[in-house]
Amino acid sequence: MNANQFRRMFALVIVASTISAATIGSAQTALAQGLGYVRGIAFEDTNGNGKRDPAEPALSVARFKITDGGNFWRCGAVFGETPYQVPLRAGTYFVMPIAGPGQYPTVPVIRVRVEPGKSVEANLPFGSNPLAVAENCGAYQPKRTAREPLGIPETILSTGSTTLVGLIEQAGLFETLSGRGPFTVFAPTDLAFAQLTEEELEALRNDRARLRSVLNYHVVPGLYKSEQVAKALGLGTANGKLLVVRVEDGDVFVGDARVIKTDIVAANGVVHLVDSVLLP
If 0-12 CB within 10 Å is exposed, 13-18 middle and 19+ buried, where does residue 221 land? Predict the structure, then answer.
């Protein structure tokens, strides 16, 4: 498939959200406004190490998504050796390469820190797989590859739970939950956070001590797979309080939250998705 065919295939998907030169403006304008920016190219990651080596060619066309782990996200496209360049306010962002036909991202999530007036590089590594199916940016949830498991925060992000990852970053727990562990995390989905009012969520964001306490109530030191969780009467959490476990009609509950997906393996633990936010 040549570049023109690829562009036509994804025209409807990216027409409303692709970051074009007209949309992002010039780097000079971005810097004048006190913004930083993320830039990079897409390349064929032939050795699967996630980094561009000298012999690895740029892809003629590829797509990506950038999110802050909260409500902000943008989709874009990059062509050949011409890098994409996206101006952003200072903060932490997650760049996600999006699979095209026959492509898969060898690194599903790239974490970057944007500083005012500075550029940070986030090249997009892709491998080849004839059976790989193209993905829609708007509904995109990055898939963990068999190459290397992700840490707890990236694994949560790979499920589409962007609100929780944004709060983890805001609470200063990203590095902790990326550490050796192991950790068991009961991760509320975005729909779970949607059950809170905007005022409740904003109050949580503005009270870092309470935010850390709430998030740590979802974290259990140690590795507990679903079978072990179901057999437990309670689990000691990272905030020092006990999380009561019960089984009703075949469903497992931790506190008042129902476990809806289990045993999502991370490099340093395991994630179980729950349908509501646990409040200690």
Answer: middle
pLDDT of residue 83: 93
Confidence grade of residue 228 (pLDDT, cut at 50, 70, 90): very high
User: Cβ distance 226 to 238 under 8 Å?
Assistant: no
Considering the domain boundaries, does residue 143 fall inside one? no
Quote the distance between the C-alpha of residue 248 and its chain's center.
32
Question: ω into residue 105 within 30 of 0, thus cis?
Answer: no
Asked if 93 and 101 touch (Cβ cutoff 8 Å), the reply is: no
Other beta carbons less than 10 A from residue 249's beta carbon: 4
- Establish if 135 belongs to a structural domain: no
With 60 as the cut, is the pLDDT of residue 112 above it?
yes
Mean pLDDT value across residues 29-50: 82
- What ranges make up the beta strands (E) of the chain? 36-40, 42-44, 62-67, 73-78, 84-88, 91-98, 103-105, 110-114, 119-121, 124-128, 183-188, 219-221, 234-236, 242-248, 251-254, 257-266, 269-274
User: 124 with 7, same domain?
Assistant: yes
Share above pLDDT 90 across residues of the chain, in percent, rounded to a whole number: 43
Segments forming the whole domain that contains residue 217: 152-274
Region 75-84: mean pLDDT is 89
Strands of the 36-40 sheet, one edge to the other? 84-88, 36-40, 119-121
The residues near 207 (Cβ < 8 Å, ≥ 6 apart) are none
121 lies in some domain: yes
Q: How confident is the model at residue 138 (pLDDT cuts 50, 70, 90)?
A: low
Half-sphere exposure of 122 (CA within 13 A, CB side): 27
Supply the pTM of this predicted model: 0.57
Q: What is the DSSP letter of 104?
A: E
